[in-house]
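User: Structure with LCNOYBR7, tokens only please.
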Amino acid sequence: MRFAANLKWLFTELPFEARFDAAAAAGFEGVEYASPYDHDPVKLAGLLRAAGLKQVLINTPADADACRADGFRDGFERAMEYALALDAGLVHVRAGARPEGVSQERAYARLITNLAWAAEQSSGGGVRLVLEAQNRRDNPGRVLRTQAEAAAIAEALGAGHVGVLLDLYHAQIDEGDLITKVRELLPYTFHYQVADPPGRHEPGTGEIGWRAVFAAIRDSGYEGWIGCEYEPLRRTLDGLGWIEELAG
Ligand SMILES: O=C(O)[C@@H](O)C(=O)CO
Ligand SMILES: [Mg+2]
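Assistant:
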């Protein structure tokens, strides 16, 4: 299994630019971070190259949620520019939270319309899009509510390059039954992220049975990356033993 360091969450003991080398020195071959937009893409590409790292995933900009009527298209185009500059294979298209005064049904319809447009814009370009259903406790008002909804949208769009980011932290909080999800969502799962609830720290610090879950991922034949998107309990390096212990 291939683990990517999420540089928004890991190695925060260091300034952002220094996290690339730190991740590579710790043995990571890939990195992800939600928002590259405060940085020059050429500079980011140089940091990746110098550290010998692959950029695995970025998000669409935080002010361009796909459930909104305004701003999405410009934000998506910006995300695609960064994805191409960084050679990022995956763009997480943020579904976002229902705008005030807008019904769930209307926001959901807007999400589908925007995603259909984004799927068409990005078809044949080598960048794949993923949808992440986030838990309702941390994300009140979120429009994409379940892992099954995310998979159903990917299926309905039928684009082939739109799939699911199965974040096991969110999935555990709202739904549980993770091993079934790993197996049933495999055709749609382009990316995983991991953290252990309730604290969102390293796997092994909370309630998930990680040995069985990682064994299910391995047995499923999943070949993508697993993003480490957790808040280290102490220093990042001190907490990396779970990779060998639970997923080795
Ligand atoms: O799970 C999360 O919070 C992230 O993957 C994210 O993309 C936040 O928008
Ligand atoms: Mg996530």
